[in-house]
């Protein structure tokens, strides 16, 4: 494994009762890049993501992170190594404020338990860093807003802030643009670009237009297998990709 490769899979396969959801997928994610995993519905993107983050065990194949075999590790242990996933469905506490959500994540990163019974003062040590993270994702004005009352796109930004609080070396983003309008997509795209400055990002996304301006490398999955890989120009001009994924309107 080369030093510039942070995450690598070899022959990754997952079968469910005779159905092969992911078949012989070999990925190489280079350090410091944004790598997109795209494909139509049912292509195996989410299954592949679940394998990488250890929420599923592969039938066959191996996964290495920073040269270390993590194939049989548990999700929490993988996260402690710096490989942190942000979930497709917003994973924030709905009845806590944005500030409180980020403080909980900071507390977790430090290795403390979720000590909700601790005094407010004991948690105030996290306030400075929490404000910095909220500012980083453009949520300063929402610091005291309860998450359930925040607009959808701002909730997704909060989710990224809580992921950043864990200080990941590599972030895995599961359809960060799902359910968003154009304005929110533009904001979250800019945010992902900004937070990628000193880390590696692997993102699952179904919208090729979204990843075209963000990604250094795009891997296209269809029927659980790698159909094509390369930069946007290479992938978008591939006739098989146009037929299987993009459709006539994008050809």
Task: Give a brief outline of the structure.
With 251 residues, the chain is an alpha/beta fold. Helices cover 34% and strands 24% of the residues.
Describe, in plain words, how this protein is organized in 3D.
Helix content is 34%, strand content 24%. The chain has 10 helices and 11 strands. By secondary structure, it is an alpha/beta fold. The longest helix has 14 residues, at 152-165. It has 2 domains: 1-82 and 168-251, P-loop containing nucleotide triphosphate hydrolases (Rossmann fold, 3-Layer(aba) Sandwich), CATH 3.40.50.300; 94-167, no CATH class. The strands form 2 sheets. The protein has a 6-stranded mixed sheet, sandwiched between helices. Strands 1, 2, 3, 5 and 6 form a 5-stranded antiparallel sheet that branches.
CATH architecture designation of the largest domain: 3-Layer(aba) Sandwich
Would you tell me the structural class of the helices and strands?
Answer: alpha/beta
Number of domains: 2
CATH class of the largest domain: Alpha Beta
In total, how many beta strands?
11
Order of helices and strands: EEEEHEEHEHHHHEHEHEEHH
- What kind of sheet is the major sheet? 6 strands, mixed
Silhouette = globular
Percentage of residues assigned to helices = 25-40%
Oligomer state equals: single chain
Low-pLDDT runs? none
For the CA atoms, what is the radius of gyration?
Answer: 19 Å
Number of helices: 10
């Amino acid at each position: 494994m080369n030093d510039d490769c942070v995450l690598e899979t070899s022959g990754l396969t997952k079968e469910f009762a005779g159905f092969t959801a992911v078949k012989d997928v070999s990925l190489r994610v280079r350090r410091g890049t944004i790598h997109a995993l795209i494909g139509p519905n049912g292509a195996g993107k989410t299954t592949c993501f679940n394998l990488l983050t250890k929420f599923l065990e592969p039938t066959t194949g191996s996964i290495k992170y920073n040269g270390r075999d993590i194939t049989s590790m548990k999700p929490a242990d993988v996260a402690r190594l710096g490989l942190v996933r942000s979930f497709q469905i917003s994973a924030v506490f709905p009845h806590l404020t944005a500030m409180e959500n980020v403080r909980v994540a900071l507390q977790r990163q430090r290795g403390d338990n979720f000590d909700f019974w601790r005094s407010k003062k004991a948690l105030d040590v996290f306030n400075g860093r929490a404000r910095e993270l909220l500012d980083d994702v453009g949520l300063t004005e929402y610091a005291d807003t309860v998450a359930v009352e925040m607009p959808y796109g701002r909730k997704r930004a909060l989710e990224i802030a809580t992921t950043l609080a864990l200080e990941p070396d590599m972030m895995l983003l599961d359809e960060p643009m799902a359910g968003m309008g154009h304005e929110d997509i533009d904001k979250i795209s800019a945010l992902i670009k900004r937070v990628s400055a000193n880390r590696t990002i692997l993102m699952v996304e179904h919208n090729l237009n979204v990843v075209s301006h963000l990604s250094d490398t795009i891997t296209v999955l269809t029927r659980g297998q790698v159909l094509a890989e390369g930069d946007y120009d290479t992938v978008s001009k591939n006739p098989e990709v146009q037929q299987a994924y993009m459709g006539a309107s994008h050809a």
